[in-house]
Specification:
The complex is a heterodimer of chains A (about 425) and B (about 120). By secondary structure, chain A is α/β, with parallel strands linked by helices. Chain A is built from eight helices and 27 strands. Chain A has three domains: about 190 residues, FAD/NAD(P)-binding domain (3-Layer(bba) Sandwich); about 130 residues, 3-Layer(bba) Sandwich (FAD/NAD(P)-binding domain); about 80 residues, Sandwich (Immunoglobulin-like), CATH 2.60.40. In chain A, the strands form seven sheets. In chain A, strands 1, 2, 5, 6, 7, 8 and 19 form a seven-stranded mixed sheet that branches. Chain A has a five-stranded parallel sheet with strand order 10-17-11-12-13. In chain A, helix 4 packs across helix 5. The termini of chain A are far apart. Chain B is elongated, with a radius of gyration of 19 Å. Classes of the chains: A alpha/beta (about 425), B alpha+beta (about 120). Chains A and B meet through strand 4, helix 2, helix 4 and helix 6 of A and strand 5 and strand 6 of B.
Chain lengths: ~425, ~120
């Protein structure tokens, strides 16, 4: 079986939904298809039942499911086609999608443009190589979040959390509110990559201790986790300091130790990748190195705010629809380089001859206070922004005028 | 006189606030902007939080419906609101915004659904 669409979107989470709506808005005549592997639309937002979403995009504070529902409601008012419970197996360089579900079987979709919006997955114990036994009771924080918030199961009663990213902090509160005892949040870095607000409202409010420069150095227990060993690390090397080991009895270890963009499809399609973001290299329209294939959201680079995902996906979706209907535009690009404390930028390149404003998103490598960031093209300063504070956990941006770009652009702290 | 130290959560600066109550006078130090002072006073006098949790869903396409307090509730009431939600259940269909518990635990806010559940 095979069918043809103008824009095919892989993933029905926040990025995919915003991209679909933007594609439809840019080219109302375009045939738009969203392919989602879960049974329902909404992606990871469905399990993020806490609030704090939408302050930028909607100007009000929503929970994850509410934020998702607003987009789902909008999609349902259009003729955007949605396939749920459908797994995409392959995206070719010619934008032919192979997918499978129980209703249609194996299906080929020929798309005028493709938007990759697969999101990311969590790093697991295997990625960290935590020593010790292999008992039940070790979960990623997001997995525990799904079990508690959607399936109605409690993963354990006495919890240690490794990693103080936002998901770890949110789950510390969630588990406490559901009656578990969270004994410790251990963070290997000297600072948290989570928001201050989450440290205060999730940990401080619930008297949960947070130890910086600490990590889990062993998981103990035969059938079930019985305890974990926590050690202090040397901040310079992040190596455990012998003699600082402490055994904490618990039945569950939750891991909140980073997210990995889920780019198997992108890699198989031969898309050029950025080694820092683990996502595709894209231009200001979020087009990848494969013409007509766009990427947005957490599959492109891990975001801390879904509001930014929606904004980015809007760019990608609209550009994908224009590509599908009007044909390709840019054929040459200028590189955008991250330097001096700026870890990466997205986009990583800019179309030659483009006009209008473009926001360059970036992250710093370490927390910096009273710094400024500049976007330069040769000797010309395109934009400069002063910031009281920039931290690796918060994505920053700087806006430039594309008409001023005449060569390679450098984003740098000054 | 009572003094509390807290981290301001209004922006990423995360200023270390020192909030002192002396009778009716509350002074905030350590803040670098006006919003920090307001936050410090609020936290000292009446800290408020939004509670988000879930309730059992009967006859729906999912076992749980996610809920929140429509307005913020006093921090000291969180445990009672959670307990009320734990005992509550709701019959599908449910739509975002449906009131699940009116004035839950007398904390001053309705608990409303934050997701849809279809009847099956």
């Amino acid at each position: 079986m095979s069918c043809m669409v103008d824009v095919a979107i892989v993933g029905g989470g926040p990025a995919g939904l915003a991209a679909a709506l933007a594609a439809k808005e840019a080219k109302p005549e375009a045939k738009v298809l969203v392919i989602e592997r879960d049974k329902k639309l909404g992606g990871i937002l469905r399990q993020c039942i806490h609030n704090g979403f939408g302050l930028h995009y909607f100007g009000e504070e929503l929970t994850g499911p509410e934020y998702a529902q607003r987009f789902i409601d909008r999609v349902e008012k259009t003729d955007i086609e949605v396939w749920t419970d459908t797994m995409v197996l392959d995206v070719s360089q010619k934008r032919e999608i192979t997918c499978v579900n129980t209703e249609l079987g194996l299906q080929k979709v020929e798309a005028g443009a493709v938007v990759l919006a697969m999101g990311c997955r969590e790093r697991t114990r295997g990625a960290l190589n935590i020593p010790g036994t292999r008992p039940a009771g070790v979960y990623t924080a997001g997995c525990a979040q799904r079990l508690v918030n959607m399936e109605g199961f409690m993963p354990g009663k006495e919890i240690v959390i490794l990693g103080s990213g936002d998901i770890g902090l949110i789950m510390a509160r969630r588990m406490t509110w559901e009656g578990a005892k969270v004994k410790l949040v251990a963070e290997i870095m000297p600072y948290s990559s989570g928001l201050n607000r989450n440290i205060v409202q999730c940990l401080v409010d619930n008297d949960i201790p947070l130890k910086f420069n600490h990590t889990v150095t062993a998981v103990n227990g035969r059938e079930r986790v019985e305890s974990v060993t926590v050690s202090e690390v040397d901040p310079a090397t992040r190596r455990p300091i012998p003699g600082t080991e402490e055994t904490i009895p618990c039945d569950t270890l939750l891991l909140s130790v980073g997210l990995i963009p889920e780019n198997e499809l992108s890699l198989a399609a031969g898309i050029q990748m950025d080694r820092v973001t683990s996502g595709a290299v894209v231009d200001e329209t979020r087009q990848t190195s494969v013409p007509g294939v766009f990427a947005c959201g957490n599959v492109l680079h891990v975001h801390d705010l879904v509001d930014n995902v929606s904004a980015e996906a809007t760019l990608a979706g609209a550009a994908a629809a224009r590509y599908a209907i009007d044909g390709p535009k840019a054929t040459e690009w200028y590189a955008v380089k991250a330097e001096n404390g700026v870890r990466y930028t997205a986009p990583q390149k800019l179309s030659k001859g483009a006009s209008g404003k473009a926001e360059l998103f970036f992250r710093v490598g370490n927390p910096v206070k009273n710094a400024a960031v500049e976007a330069r093209c040769g000797d010309k300063v395109l934009a400069r922004r002063k910031k009281n504070i920039m931290t690796p956990g918060e994505m920053e941006k700087i806006e430039i005028d594309l008409a001023e770009v005449q060569g390679e652009v450098v984003v740098t702290l000054v | 006189m009572e003094t509390r130290e807290m981290t301001c959560i209004i922006c990423p600066m995360g200023c270390a606030l020192r909030v002192t109550r002396d009778g009716d006078t509350i002074t905030v130090t350590g803040n670098t902007c006006k919003r920090g002072e307001k936050y410090g006073i609020q936290e000292m006098t009446m800290p408020m939080r939004t509670v988000t949790t879930s309730v059992t869903c009967r006859g729906g396409d999912r076992p749980l419906v996610s809920v929140k307090t429509k307005d913020q509730v006093p921090k000291e009431k969180i445990a009672e609101v959670l307990e009320a939600c734990r005992e509550a259940s709701v019959q599908a269909p449910v739509r975002v915004g449906d009131v699940i518990l009116a004035d839950a635990a007398g904390a001053g806010s309705d608990v409303v659904a934050t997701c849809n559940a279809d009847a099956v």
